[in-house]
Design goal:
Blueprint (H helix, E strand, L loop, with lengths): L17 H14 L1 H39 L6 H6 L8 H14 L6 H36 L2 H30 L9
Helix pairs in contact: 5-6
Length: 188
């Protein structure tokens, strides 16, 4: 008579403790370890195949939708649009449009908007200069550290801390200038 390969599990009686239950389940797993592993691997493989199938079907649906959009009247493909694109030039019309925009953004020479724009620009330039100085200072710090010049290293650290004060102030002012809400003034 052939040996049956069914997994048999005897339910623990109420008299058995949790420790005995864990022992029984562990023995059951160890006896059927390859079957359990194969079942887990097979389940994961089927789940992976399902995800791949759904991803491919979503891509096909998106491609079909894009083709339908291009078939509608009044739409063009990207290739047709790049062939007929007009080259942008900086000419008198560009400067006229820029001047009209600046008149809207900056209503007058003594306005708050102009002062805000100038102060923001100044702080951006100062922040750039401080960043360049800090990068140079970092290079000197690393150089003095590698060469073993302790006195020059500590002097550089002190200068670095001194530069941190105006750098922090400058970064705060740039952030404040960006976050200040201004009401748009529309002029004709």
């Amino acid at each position: 008579m052939a040996i049956q390969s069914k997994i048999t599990f005897t339910a623990p009686t109420s008299e058995k403790s949790v420790k005995e239950l864990i022992t029984v389940l562990t023995d059951l797993y160890l006896k059927n370890r390859t079957r359990v592993s194969r079942a887990v691997y097979l389940t994961l493989f089927v789940a992976l195949l399902g995800r791949i199938y759904h991803a491919i079907s979503e891509q096909k649906a998106a491609a079909i939708q894009q083709v339908e959009l291009l078939r509608r009247p009044g739409t063009t493909s990207k290739d047709d649009n790049t062939k007929t694109r007009k080259r942008v030039e900086i000419n008198r019309e560009f400067f006229r449009n820029l001047l009209r925009l600046l008149k809207i953004v900056i209503p007058g020479w003594r306005s708050k908007e102009l002062r805000l724009l100038i102060s923001h620009s100044v702080f951006l330039v100062v922040r750039t200069l401080i960043s360049l100085y800090v990068a140079e200072l970092d290079g000197k710090l690393v150089s003095s550290l590698v060469r073993g010049k302790g006195k020059a290293f500590f002097k550089g650290i002190i200068w670095w801390m001194v530069v941190a004060i105006p750098a922090t102030f400058t970064n705060s002012m740039v952030g404040a200038a960006m976050l200040k809400p201004r009401k748009a003034q529309l002029t004709t």
